[in-house]
Design goal:
Elements (H helix, E strand, L loop, with lengths): L2 H26 L16 H8 L6 E6 L3 E8 L2 E9 L5 E4 L8 E4 L16
Antiparallel strand pairs: 1-2, 2-3, 3-4, 4-5
């Protein structure tokens, strides 16, 4: 077989496959009828109870001061973060990283890592 005829056979084979693959895939797609889907059930009672038990959501307090804007973030009444946006300069944060009530300085430009320290459970 000459190189030219080999190229033609290869080109025809590729073109045939390129046409056959989309046709084969189109035949395998099953259409879903929206009328056959069941209705979405209501949430379980334990989830509704958690929403209605009166637990305070995370509270955010924004205060405008002469130096800038202070935003306090609280969960269950405990202050865990304060964002300070001064009139001039970069914003920075005071974080209670270990839950002892003492706020530590944290800047967005700080090269050090900020390790997540979430409370999983308390006794």
């Amino acid at each position: 077989m000459s190189p030219v005829s080999f190229r033609i056979v290869r080109l025809v084979s590729v073109a045939a496959l390129a046409c056959a693959v989309p046709l084969a895939l189109a035949q395998q797609v099953d259409r879903i009828d929206d009328t056959q889907l069941p209705a979405v059930p209501p949430p379980p009672p334990e989830i509704q109870a958690m929403e209605e038990d009166g637990a305070p959501p995370p509270a955010v307090t924004i205060r405008e001061t002469e130096r800038g804007t202070e935003t306090e973030y609280r969960v269950n009444g405990r202050l865990y973060k304060v964002q300070i946006v001064p009139e001039t300069g970069a914003p920075y944060y005071l974080l209670d990283k270990d839950g002892d009530g003492i706020m530590e300085f944290h800047s967005l430009n700080d090269p050090g890592p900020s390790v997540p320290m979430w409370v999983i459970g308390t006794f």
